[in-house]
Specification:
4-stranded antiparallel β-sheet; alpha+beta
Length: about 500
């Protein structure tokens, strides 16, 4: 269930995305059009516009170059709605450890521009981030339409890689070190100065338990920048059910249990030792064979106790690989400041021609405010279903395949009402408890269309200069204000929540 993509997957995604973007922006279109001269607006006209509309009424849209970059525009508009991400990028740049031609710098410039209030609608091409991605990936491309989820993963991975590079010890002969130290009139820094961690990155805790021998492996921690969850094939679902499903026990049919393998191998070694005990020949070869088996018996017992790895080559008796049924549980060991969720809506439908991919239209109900405290690990992960309640404070999960929509809604109604817009507004923003982990919705990416074609749009939260909170529907160059109720009814593809210190809507 881990959502953090491998390095090989990221390289593949980088190749596809950067090729698609590069061709769009830098190859000539089949339809050449004469550039239109922009009419100069007289000063008195601008004054009338400003007088009729409050200054800072609008924000920038993004031009869809070649009619196939909506996936990129939707992600960039969503990221622009995350103040904690902009704060992180700015601190990284001010630390002096970021080069100019990086994704970090380009993304900071772009997000800053997307948040600049303007007096009339306007749009621009995000060329700077395109070039930064191109330089980061180093690949060229095709014209295939890409996916918003993949581009988000690429951007997040690029930010993390640049952060890791900046944390490495610097050489005294590094040009960037000399430049920064000269400008700041400080001694040459050997180690990068600490800055805030990437707000997108959190930590999951995972544990697998064998149902044959009862052995539980060590807790494995993995970093993640978002979670990707497949949706069930039902009419509607809730975010609460999605998170419960993600952190519930998962049954594995074909698990390679190391402990079972060691136990079975130990049994073979002991059987062969018993056979040699009845051999009275006393030959040197027999004695050597017995000593080797006794040595390996001790090694296997140590491995069973200390989780020590045993290489196949050092065993006189081949290590037995045993496939068993197992249980896996994944929870959050550390929540990120920005919690991103991707809903996988791809369904494979077999047919006479081998099969086809279609889009899952399952409606996901999501609240404005969500408390993620129930999905944090308490330091203990369940070994068996009977122990599930010990691993977190959330109630036992239920399978969507076994519960009707009506039953699920009744089970979740009380929990969802606690975080509804009306409840929080009327109670006057209650204080957070020490164990609460409240997050507020800041952006929603929606895919309109079917699996093979469609269009990405974004709903983003924005605070105007006068303090008013509005929601924008952004579709490339087109932007308009919408109500929160409209946003919460959309068919979400990705959700972006930001951590709250107080319950502010």
């Amino acid at each position: 269930m881990s959502s953090f993509l491998s390095s090989n997957t990221i390289r593949t995604i980088a190749s596809l995305v950067t090729i698609a973007i590069s061709v769009t922006y830098f190859l000539p279109s089949s339809k050449q059009q004469k550039p239109k001269r922009r009419k100069r607006i007289p000063k008195h006209t601008v004054k009338k516009i400003t007088a009729g509309k409050e200054a800072g009424t609008y924000f920038h849209g993004l031009v869809n170059g070649g009619n196939n970059t909506c996936f990129m525009n939707s992600v960039l508009q969503a990221l622009a709605a995350l103040p904690l991400l902009r704060k992180y990028l700015l601190k990284r740049i001010r630390s002096g450890e970021v080069d100019e031609n990086t994704v970090t710098v380009a993304l900071n410039h772009l997000l800053s521009k997307l948040n600049e209030p303007i007096v009339r609608p306007n749009s621009f091409l995000p060329r700077e981030i395109v070039w930064a991605l191109q330089a980061n990936a180093g690949q060229l491309i095709n014209r295939e339409q890409q996916d918003a989820h993949e581009l988000f993963a690429l951007l997040s991975s690029a930010l993390s890689e640049e952060e890791e590079v900046s944390k490495r010890p610097k050489s005294l002969f590094s040009l960037s070190v000399v430049k920064n130290s000269t400008m700041r009139r400080k001694l040459l820094p050997l180690i990068a100065s600490p800055v805030e961690n990437n707000p997108l990155r959190g930590l999951t805790a995972c544990r697998i338990s064998c149902m044959r021998c009862g052995h539980s492996g060590p807790v494995r921690h993995t970093t993640f920048d978002h979670i990707s969850v497949p949706l069930p094939q039902i009419s509607n679902y809730s975010l609460e059910q999605v998170l419960r499903s993600y952190t519930s026990l998962e049954f594995i049919d074909d698990f390679n249990c190391r402990n079972c393998g060691l136990l079975d191998t130990l049994q073979v070694v002991e059987e062969r030792l018993n056979e040699l005990r009845y051999d009275q020949s006393g030959s040197d070869n027999m004695t050597k064979r017995r000593d080797q088996l006794e040595s390996e018996k001790r090694i296997i017992k140590i491995a069973l106790t200390n989780e020590m790895e045993i290489e196949d080559e050092i065993l006189a008796v081949p290590y037995k690989k045993v496939k068993t049924a197992a249980i896996k549980q994944t929870m959050f060991a550390r929540l990120p400041s920005i919690f991103a969720i991707h809903f996988s809506r791809t369904i494979y439908v077999p047919n006479a021609f081998g099969g086809m991919m279609i889009k899952n239209p399952c409606e996901v109900r999501f609240p404005l405010i969500v408390n993620l405290a129930s999905y944090l690990s308490t330091g203990y992960l369940a070994n068996m279903p009977s122990e599930l309640a010990l691993s977190s404070s959330c109630s036992p999960p239920f399978s969507p395949a076994l519960v009707t929509v009506g039953v699920a809604e009744r089970q979740l109604k009380q929990e969802e009402e606690k975080y509804s817009l009306e409840t929080i507004g009327e109670t006057g923003r209650p204080e957070l408890n020490e164990d609460d982990r409240y997050y507020r919705l800041n952006a929603v990416i929606v895919h309109v269309g079917d699996h093979s074609r469609g269009h990405f749009i974004t709903y983003r939260r924005q605070i105007k200069d006068n303090g008013a909170i509005v929601w924008w529907r952004t579709s490339d160059e087109h932007m308009r204000e919408v109500s929160l109720e409209t946003v919460l009814k959309e068919e979400a593809y990705m959700l972006f929540y930001e951590k709250l210190e107080t319950l502010e809507l």
